Amino acid sequence: MIEFKNIKKSFDGKDVLHGLDSKFLPGRTNLIIGSSGTGKSVLLKCMVGLLEPDEGSVLYDGRDFTHASRNVRRDIRRDIGMLFQGAALFDSKTVEQNVLFPLNVLTDMPKDEKLDRVNFVLKRVGLENVNQKMPSEISGGMKKRVGIARAIVNNSKYLYCDEPNSGLDPQTAILIDALIKEITEEFNITTVVVTHDMNSVMEHGDYIIYMYDGRKLWEGDNTQILDTTVPELQDFIFSSKLVRSMKKMENIK
Amino acid sequence: MHGIGRYFIFLGNLFIKREPANTYLKQIMEECIKVGIDSIIIVTIVSTFIGAVTCIQTAFNLVSPLIPRYVISLVVRDMTLLELAPTITAIVLAGKVGSNIAGELGTMRISEQVDALEVMGINSVSFLALPKIIACVIMFPMLVILAGFLAIMGGYLAGTLTGVITPQDYIYGIRADFQEFNVFFALIKSFAFAFLVSSISSFKGYNTSGGALEVGQSSTSAVTNSCIAILVADYLLAELLL
Ligand SMILES: Nc1ncnc2c1ncn2[C@@H]1O[C@H](COP(=O)(O)OP(=O)(O)OP(=O)(O)O)[C@@H](O)[C@H]1O
Ligand SMILES: [Mg+2]
Questions:
Q1: Closest Cα in chain A, distance from residue B90 (Å)
Q2: Which of B122, B124, B183 is nearest to B148 (CA)?
Q3: Chain segment A138-183, per-residue pLDDT in tens
Q4: ipTM reported for the complex, 2 dp
Q5: Which chain A residue has the Cα nearest residue B113?
Q6: For ligand 1, what atom is nearest to the CA of residue A214?
């Protein structure tokens, strides 16, 4: 479980996050949605410690991460996997070396076991026979898959995904979303996904928080979101014609 | 001033909470190849010509018949060992290795690879920069030794081929009044320059933000700052040790 309390963050006097609280449960796909510039990425970075919040704290299964010592932080981080927006694969390493990397530096498993594990996760994300390819030689969707494999290879308990399906065609985007959801349920991971994509919201939103201007304006799941009365959220979700017609059909039913 | 303070914090981060040493061995080897072996050709060309030019110019300036000809090679030896081999090699390497380091780290930074390391709980500063710095500190002195040797060779070739000095005089000159300390001094300088070039370039690359344009700017400023640091350190070391 990931919990954060009263997270505040400002840059040069400009407040970006105005005190956010929430709780993300394991085995569920938790979504953070909101329009561009509302601080979703900043929140994610505060949660994994790439940025320090000015106030508030983030707890991983009750362990305070924000105010922890270096060593405790490092221990918690070994349980965190993250899929970056551009996948952030190490481009001087092959696919196999990329996925092997966390095992090499974080564990002292024997070599065979490591390779077995790498092949297992690569197979799990649907990639075979690309082990020796370089990141520049594979497609965007495949990079995302490798990124997911690398994020979960060390049996991560927490998985963060920053816009996992940006820049992908709708079909591949759906596959990646489904993969994240399956993995979350299969390994009981606490998954946090930042997304703009209404399709993933409707498909996989077990728990959704809607952010607007650094505040949490709404929370709930995908069965409740179309009935929201929050005007900002209505503007956000019904900006797409598709979702508007979905809502209409639901009303007719 | 602010930048210098951040540079020292960066240096501090190199050594705290780093990963166990064996994670670095393979990387250090790879970096040594990149820094050392891949720079041999450019160092060979530059130092041979520097030696040749020094020889010819010294000969050109020594017109008095009272001065023996072997002084030419003596001057070539002292100039190249003391100054030209370490400093020019370092400046050439600042251009080649420094821009390479800054470009590589800058690209890793903007494509979030540095963040990916941090999220895994790895101290990205030491993980990325330390192997490069160690490799430079190992390889620069070797390249400087090579450069010194080749510069004296270059002087020999230029001097004897153009006939300004006989081979016997040249050999006599490079052995006359030889001070071992000069070689030692050249090595001290090369260690200092290696550390400066690699750490400044790593610092510049690591602190890139933005996009491809900024990576280019980081590379440029890595090279210019390294060159300035080399010349300042050169002066300070000469003041301290000579
Ligand atoms: N390092 C930083 N320094 C200064 N301001 C920043 C920094 N990072 C983010 N901001 C500001 O914080 C605000 C929120 O940015 P953030 O990247 O979190 O938006 P986002 O919700 O992720 O948007 P998007 O959906 O476009 O990715 C923006 O106004 C941005 O300018
Ligand atoms: Mg973002």
A1: 26
A2: B183
A3: 998 899 999 999 999 988 999 999 999 888 888 888 888 998 999 9
A4: 0.88
A5: A88
A6: 14
Residue B63 predicted with pLDDT over 80? no
**3-state SS assignment for residue A213:** coil
> What CATH number belongs to A1-79+158-164+186-253?
3.40.50.300
CA distance A122 to A139: 15
pLDDT digits (tens, 9 = 90+) for B172-202: 999 988 888 999 999 999 999 999 999 999 9
Q: Which domain holds residue B68?
A: 2-241
**How far is ligand 1, taken at its centre, from the CA of residue B169, in Å?**
71
Q: Measured between CA atoms, how close is B4 to chain A, in angstroms?
A: 21
Question: What is the distance in angstroms between the Cα of B27 and the nearest Cα belonging to chain A?
Answer: 12
Tell which residue, A149, A144, A146, A150, has the closest CA to residue A162.
A144
By CA distance, what is A71's nearest residue in B? B17
Under 8 Å between Cβ of B197 and B98: yes
A172-198 residue pLDDT tens: 888 889 989 999 999 999 999 998 888
In whole angstroms, give the CA distance from residue B107 to residue B101. Answer: 10
Number of domain units in chain B: 1
Q: Which residue puts its alpha carbon closest to atom 2 of ligand 1? A: A11
**CB neighbours of residue A246 within 10 Å:** 16
Four-point Cα dihedral B204, B207, B211, B212, nearest 10: 20
What's the rounded Cα separation, in Å, for the pair B189 and B234?
A: 7
Inter-chain contact A106–B121, Cβ cutoff 8 Å? yes
User: What is the separation of C-alpha B240 from the centre of its chain, rounded to a whole number of angstroms?
Assistant: 20
Mean pLDDT calculated for residue range B47-54? 94
| Interface probe, candidates B15, B104, B107, B119, chain A, greatest A C-beta count within 10 A | B119
Kindly tell me if the per-residue pLDDT of A243 is higher than 80: no
Q: Which amino acid is at A194?
A: V
Tally the C-alpha atoms within 13 A of residue A23's C-alpha that lie toward its C-beta.
Answer: 4
Please give the single-letter amino acid code of residue A79: D
- What does the pLDDT look like over A24-65, one tens digit per residue? 999 999 999 998 889 999 999 999 999 999 999 999 999 999
Measured between beta carbons, the chain A residues lying within 8 angstroms of B121 are 73-78, 80, 106
Nearest to A88 among B17, B112, B122 (CB): B112
Cβ–Cβ of A78/B120 closer than 8 Å?
Answer: yes
pLDDT digits (tens, 9 = 90+) for B110-153: 999 999 999 988 889 999 999 999 999 999 999 999 999 999 99
Handedness of CA A171, A173, A179, A181 (dihedral sign): negative
